[in-house]
Amino acid sequence: MSRLEGRKNEQLRTTHIKYEGLDRVDGSARFGFGETESLASVSGPIEVRPNSESPSQATLEVHIRPLAAIAGTDSKALSATLKSILIPALLLSQHPRTLVQIVGQALCGSESGAGYGSAGRGWHASLVASLINACSAALVNASSVPMKGVVCAVAIGRLRDPSSSLSSPTLVLDPSEAELSRLVGGGCFAFMFSSTLSKPLQSDADVPSSSLLWTNYTAMGGAFGDAEFEEARQLAENGATLVWQSFKDSLQNGQVSRPATELKKKALDEEPVDDEKMEI
């Protein structure tokens, strides 16, 4: 079954990463699959409120904001999900009694309604994947929080042929905004790529091992079997590997820019630095 854009089932849209260098944060980045874009910033380690202080590790806060309107219950739920996804990749014990704050912002949704939170269709899987990747890129850009791995995410869609209601759904990688109405399920898969994980035999020597951290894969109006889930997981892992390669290429090409606050610190040396951080 052909896709609307002519892509193959296992083909990602064009991915793009831009390290924004936003002022008064320690790291920031924009990540997109085609028109599905997100922006994220990282502040920290910074001073933490006494009631949130942990004596053994840094406190992690994640805030997700829709394209428009105020963050609602669904945005807060997504914030909690992203926090649980990112924690395994961070060495928060290296900075106890501090705060690491991540703010993610949806930059798309004008056509599909997704990205508007409760005011629209909520957060579809491709947008969730772009938010996860933007947060990972911002953490890499900040370089202020030790990491034991990089989290990369992609979406898988169950695409049904509109000409036949009896045919089995086809699994496709990275469904676009235009394909949302044709989906009968799917979800986001998040993997951590790390050299600390055991490497399987006959694996690519240039790609670190990966581990599935989270997925919300589901079927609309019915169940799915183990074989379908394994096919979806493998398709997602291959796609996440391409995202990891995009991260690697962006670093090798020298696209990482140090935030303006770091440049100011070097120039001012002894002058006190305002710890107040500007969120996106």
Automatic annotation (TrEMBL):
<protein>
    <submittedName>
        <fullName>Uncharacterized protein</fullName>
    </submittedName>
</protein>
